[in-house]
Amino acid sequence: MAESSKTQRPHKTTHERLHEYIFGETALKANNIVPKYQKDCENDAELTLWIVDELLQSAHNYVQRLLDENKVLRRLINIKTIRVKGEEVKASWDLWTPEHAYAFACYLFLENKGTEACKQCQNCRSTGPMGGCIAGDMQYMKGACACCYYSGSGKRCSRRLTMEEEEAEKKAKKRPKFQGFTTALLKDASNEEIELWLGWVEAEMEERASARQPPSKKRRVH
């Protein structure tokens, strides 16, 4: 049997893929051993390495797509400290759901597209576990920060809302201004469109005429 002309890309283990990622000027896995379990991580650097290794094993396509598009680790993980029953403890977190895994991937690999934290992060209302308000552009988490996205409140993230307003303004500026009715416009319009416009014009003219009438001549309603 003749060999296939197609060359298959050899499968890489997650540990081999770690060499593709850069933190600073060093390969992420250079001289580093990935802890086997989360509980074995002794500092933020080891925990970050463990999380990235877990994310590389994720079955979620958009997590893998983000990791393929972004090879530079922007920051180490920082799990925020919260107060529970008078004691300061690290916030609980996991990578079990697609949203949680994606939020962590965005937090670690996206360039932060702003300097001011969102209102939820500023007022400690966000239940996301990351210490820091990190958000990319609209193609990632629709502009929300990782904490808000993780906690399911991305739609209320003020950074997303601000970005949506800016996008709407840009689209409005690009939209051509209405130049008024022209003979060319009327010729291209269907009969139904012209009847609709005519109805609008007649209703507007009646309203204006009624507004110009003196009070004594206006129709009284009994």
Write a short abstract of this structure:
With 222 residues, the chain is mainly alpha-helical. It has helices at 14-18, 44-56, 61-69, 98-109, 119-122, 146-150, 158-174, 183-188, 191-212, and strands spanning 22-23, 26-27, 81-84, 87-90. Strand 1 and strand 2 form a beta hairpin.
What can you tell me about this protein's structure?
- The chain is mainly alpha-helical.
- It contains nine helices and four strands, in the order αββααββαααααα.
- The protein has one domain (14-174).
- α2 crosses α4 (98-109) and α3 packs parallel to α4 (98-109).
Keywords summarizing the entry:
9 helices, mainly alpha, two-stranded antiparallel sheet, 222 residues, 4 strands
Indicate the mean pLDDT.
82
Number of strands: 4
The largest β sheet comes out as: 2 strands, antiparallel
Tell me the helix content: 40-55%
Lateral strand order in the biggest sheet = 1-2
The total number of structural domains is 1
What are the secondary-structure elements, in order, as H or E?
HEEHHEEHHHHHH
Residue ranges: pLDDT <50 for 5 or more in a row?
1-11
Distance, first to last CA: 97 Å
Number of helices, where a helix is a run of at least 4 consecutive DSSP H or I residues: 9
Structural class: mainly alpha
Beta-strand content bin: 5-15%
What does the radius of gyration come to?
A: 29 Å
Shape: elongated
